Amino acid sequence: MALSTEAGWNQTTADWHRLLRLGRGFGVAERGGPLVASAVILPYDSDLAWISMVLVIARWRRRGLASILMDEALDACRRLGRTAFLDATPDGTEVYRQLGFAAGERITRWSRPAGAATTTLPTVRADASLEPACLLDARAMGAPRRALLEALAADGRPILQSGGSLLLRPGRVAWQIGPLTAADRRSADALLADGLAAVGAQAAFADARDAAGFDGVLRAAGFTPQRHFLRMHSGTPPPADPGLLWLTAGPEFG
Ligand SMILES: CC(C)(COP(=O)(O)OP(=O)(O)OC[C@H]1O[C@@H](n2cnc3c(N)ncnc32)[C@H](O)[C@@H]1OP(=O)(O)O)[C@@H](O)C(=O)NCCC(=O)NCCS
Fold first, then answer.
1. How many other C-beta atoms can be found within 10 angstroms of the C-beta atom of residue 131?
2. 129 CA to middle of ligand 1, Å?
């Protein structure tokens, strides 16, 4: 938490616990002291592993720690037979490029401060099964990640509809709205409206693929662009249909 909080990130202790329960963490500590650098791999149910939480405290940067941890993480992905994916911050992009990662889509983090709630009426509908959401999400990502979606749904608030699904979860500084998977634009818009209603006047982040064309809807809902991420991978990406993913689960989960 000290590492992610120093970087101003949104993860909670529950996020760290979930990542370390479902995945595997790597770290560097000062002798007898606290952790100064971290990385986590989160294997999806097959094919792909997500790398995240690549953090080095400010006074230890540019000494090769992130590169060493990434080598370990990539080795672990290879041993598991998984293609490594991650969402890179501008700081991280060059580290990963030098390790052979290829650049994919750009993602924009949209942010809305507390108190800027829209007037959409809450129309949250839920059914009991996460199954259709998992299937659509697997098509979007190119790999199933049921264990992750179940954990996110259990700790947050799932909105499940016939055309798609949206998961909401509380973060350290703002609610994360996503992942949002939907078969078409109309379903995506409806899910976002329900998600905004559920979050109410609390601060919120939404990480949208630029190619999703969600900018107008997010601006109209009071969001402004805060930062960018670059989706990158190392290895052969599984066939995917990213057009089904409107908002990601956040850079730590993909
Ligand atoms: C990004 C981060 C993890 C890099 O950690 P690090 O231990 O300093 O990285 P390394 O020392 O292994 O860097 C290896 C090379 O990558 C490049 N690089 C690293 N940080 C860079 C930066 N901020 N800008 C441009 N290039 C950078 C350099 O070429 C560097 O080699 P050099 O120092 O010999 O020039 C660290 O800056 C950090 O924690 N930033 C805040 C959190 C963050 O954005 N994490 C990445 C999440 S995707």
1. 11
2. 42
| Cβ neighbourhood burial of 49 (10 Å; 0-12, 13-18, 19+) | buried
Domain that holds residue 191: 109-247
Select from 84, 105, 126 the last residue of a domain. 105
Are residues 131 and 223 both part of a single domain?
yes
pLDDT tens readout for residues 151-172: 999 999 999 998 999 999 999 9
What residue's CA is closest to ligand 1, atom 26?
A: 94
Reduced to 3 states (helix: H, G, I; strand: E, B; else coil), residue 129 is coil
Span from the CA of 222 to the centroid of ligand 1 (angstroms): 33
Same domain, 35 and 141: no
Diameter over CA atoms, the chain: 55
Counting ligand 1 atoms within 8 A of each CB, the residue from 10, 61, 98 with the most, and so the one to mutate, is 61
Q: Select from 72, 105, 138 the last residue of a domain.
A: 105
Residue nearest to atom 42 of ligand 1 (CA): 55
pTM for the structure as a whole: 0.95
* Beta carbons within 8 Å of 209's beta carbon, 6+ residues apart: 105, 106, 107, 231, 242, 245, 246, 248
The region, left, alpha or beta by phi > 0 then psi within -120 to 50, assigned to residue 62 is left
- How many domains are there within the chain? 2
Report d(CA 3, CA 39) in Å as an integer: 11
Q: What parts of the chain have a pLDDT lower than 70?
A: 116-128
* 126 & 152 share domain: yes
Give the C-alpha separation, 128 to 42, whole Å: 26
